Every structure is written in structure tokens, then in C-alpha cells.
Known about the structure:
By secondary structure, the protein is mainly alpha-helical. It contains 14 helices and no strands. The protein has one domain (2-273).
Amino acid sequence: MSAQTTTSTVPKELRDAPSSTLSRVMRSEWTKLFSVRSTGWTLLALVAATIGLGVLASWGTNHGWPQMSQSDQRKFDPVATSMSGFALGQLAIAVLGVMVISAEYSTGGIRSTLTTVPSRMRVLTAKALVFTAVALVVGLATSFGAFFAGQPWFAKRGIGRAIGDHDVLRAVIGGGLYVAASGLFGLAMGVLLRRTAGAVTIAIAALLVLPGLLNVLPGAWGDAIVRYFTSNAGQQISYIHQSGNYLSPWVGFGVYCLWWAVPLAIGAWLMQRRDA
């Protein structure tokens, strides 16, 4: 009876495969990712929240522009403002990243997967590759959508940017890269903790809550922590103007990648040694 149950929960393409190659495991992970409704709803929430909040911020800036000081007007970043919805949208992709791995642990489905594919690193690699591809494509589409939806509001004030302007294309593509990295941060937390609630809580705290709260830290050491902390570093890739206290775009994004790469590597090491 138990053998029959295990077989029925394994995707057909793996049951019928003579060997579980990476490509076959990736097809299986693709099927699992899109076989649940929550995936589509989460990606829709990412797109809607990011573009919707970006348009709202752009509209509000357009109406409040005359009241802004000349100093604020000179430092204003119309590209980052149109994509400001990523502050909330990043949470949707991070939660989905957590669920990619933690859902199987919570239901016990991971046992069936690892029975069929004994190489745990092959399973994790397939999950990471499939999820990264989805997050990157959706992130890029969302980033370009937010940019083009927000700029008409700035054009009314003569402060809009075109995609061909200096650093604009890098910033818009950077928004998509930031989404993918935020999703991988969630995946890393899921692999490390294997519990949905705990991993989601840490992801929300690290990406949304703590980056703002750390501004109260005093002195040069406080500024350094703020500069290198998760989204504070990662979001610089989507800005065309950086303040003196923050990292340059690609350095900041590289630091942000370390925030998910290190726990993902630790989680992979633990995955090899812990029971399913």
C-alpha cells in the first residue's frame, strides 16, 4: 500500500525515465511549480502590486512636484519611483521561493521526490534553475511594465526618462534581476529552515522590516550595516541616482547575491545530511 502511494505521487516523467537526468528533474519541477494555483496568484500579486504601487507613486509625485524643494528635485529618481512597488512585490516572489521547497517538506512529498531522484543536489539544482527562470522572466516583464506605466506621469513635468537614456536600461533590467534575487533569498530560507512560517517570517523581516529600522543605528558602523544590508544593497541596481551612503549598482547587487548564496550553500550542505 505504501509503495503504491509513493509511486502515485511521483511525476510521470520521472517514473517512466530510465535515469533521472537534470533535464527530466527540471521538467518535473516545472510541473510541480505550476500545478498549484498559488503559483499563479503569487506571480499575479507581484505584477499587480509592483505596477500598481509604482503608478500610484508616480501619480503622487506628479501632483506634489511643485511643493518639493529644489534639492529634492535635483536628487529625484524617476526610474526608481516608477518601480517603487518592488518594495512590496519582492515579498510575493520571496514567499513563492520559500514555498518551492518548504511545501514539499510540510506535505511529506519530498520523500517521494528523493526516492525517485536520490541525488539531493540534483533536485535542489533543478528547483533553483526552474524557479530562477520563472522569477527572472516575470521580474523583467514587471520591471519594464512599471517603468512604462510610470513615466507618462513624469513626462507631464518634463522630468521623465526614456529607455535609451543613460543608465535607464540598466536600472530597468536591474529591477528584474532584483526580483529574481529576492526569490532566491526566499528559496535559500526555505532550504535552510524547511518550515514555511519561519522562512517567510525571516524573509519579510530581512527584506522589508529591518532595512528601514537599521537607519537608527548611530555612527559609521551603523551606516556600514545599512549600506550592506539585504535590500538596501540590492535595490541600488534599479536606481539611476545613488546617494553617498549607498553602494554602486553592481557592487550592491553583488552583495545582495551573497545574502542568498551563502545561506543557500549552507542549506544545500544540511540537505545532504538531514533526514527528509
